[in-house]
Amino acid sequence: MGKITTILLDCDNTLVLSEDLAFEGCADLINEISASKNVDLPQPFTGESLIVEFVGQNFRGMMTSLQQRYKFSMTDEELDDYVRREEDVVIAKLKEKLVPCVGVDAVLEKLAKENKYKLAVVSSSALRRVKASIEKVGQDKYFGEDVYSAATSLPKPTSKPDPAIYLWAMEKMGKKPEECVAVEDSKSGTLSGTRAGINVIGYVGPYKAEEREKMEKVLKDAGAVVIMRDWSEFEGALAKIESGEV
Predict the structure, then answer these.
(1) What is the pTM of this model?
(2) Omega before 161 cis (within 30°)?
(3) 64-86: b or e for each residue (b if 16 or more CB lie within 10 Å)?
(4) 3-state secondary structure of 136
(5) Are 225 and 97 in contact (CB under 8 A)?
(6) In the listed set 97, 126, 160, which residue is the last one of a domain according to the structure?
(7) Pfam family example for this protein (predicted)?
């Protein structure tokens, strides 16, 4: 195993507990779109029902899936307009209520002090939202300009599980996959990192207790080389990758 120089962190529910808040805002908007397109939903979406289906995907990714499933279409202009609106709705919620994931701040602080690894954020969410999130909880100081968004940073917007955003982040930082480790909490994020050739630590901390075991399997099946239930396990998980144990 080569030397690990870089740690790439997903944002939503890896650094900050944003998924519930974001999906709440998102559900309202998707219900509104469905009504305007005369889509006959079995029942209106709630934050919770959206999370079950789309965790780790951005709004553009969700809308693509929903258009295929419910056989309706939107113009590019319409979609862009809704993407902007969703961003505004979600950012307002995050600025009001967002908190960091349990235990992550202590780990970030220690990593920054040791100064052994470059730290970056690699997210599916829009850059404006990611920056608003890490600024709200005071984590922005750890990452500088190394904040990358599949929705905003790429020449062509995409969403995880597409590996494009990881490949882009590594190119911008001049890093190779074998010197990076990623931390991801979703299937789509884990697939994205794995497809980019990166060793992924699967993090299941924010899931409800009864879902954790299932998610551990989902993330392992998606390619996570080690599972972390709590940020206090990060050092051990990283050591396993560095020693070539996993």
Answers:
(1) 0.88
(2) yes
(3) eebbeeeeeebeeeebeebbeeb
(4) helix
(5) no
(6) 97
(7) HAD_2
| Cα 80 from Cα 90, distance rounded (Å) | 15
In angstroms, the CA 98 to CA 137 distance is 7
Reported as type and span, the H/E element at residue 184 is strand 180-184
* Rg, Å, the chain Cα set: 18
Task: Rounding to the nearest 10 degrees, give the CA dihedral for residues 47, 70, 184, 151.
Answer: -100
The verdict on 104 and 198 lying in the same domain is yes
The predicted pLDDT at position 53 comes to 83
In sequence order, what are the residues at sequence separation of 6 or more whose Cβ sits closer than 8 angstroms to the Cβ of residue 205?
A: 101, 102, 103, 185, 228, 229, 230, 231
Side chain identity at residue 186, one-letter code: S
Q: How far is the C-alpha of 233 from the C-alpha of 127, rounded, in Å? A: 28
Report the DSSP beta bridge partners of residue 201.
183, 226
Region 117-134: mean pLDDT is 96
**Last residue of one domain, picked from the residues 97, 120, 137:** 97
Burial track 26-58 (b if 16+ CB lie within 10 A, e otherwise):
bbebbbebbeeeebeeeeebebeebbeebbbbb
The per-residue pLDDT for range 206-246, each reduced to its tens digit, is: 999 999 999 999 999 999 999 999 999 999 999 999 999 99
Looking at the predicted structure, is the pLDDT value of residue 58 above 90? Answer: no
Q: Kindly report the CA angle at 21 between 52 and 139, in degrees rounded to 5?
A: 115
Same structural domain, 123 and 55: no
DSSP-based three-state secondary structure for 86: helix
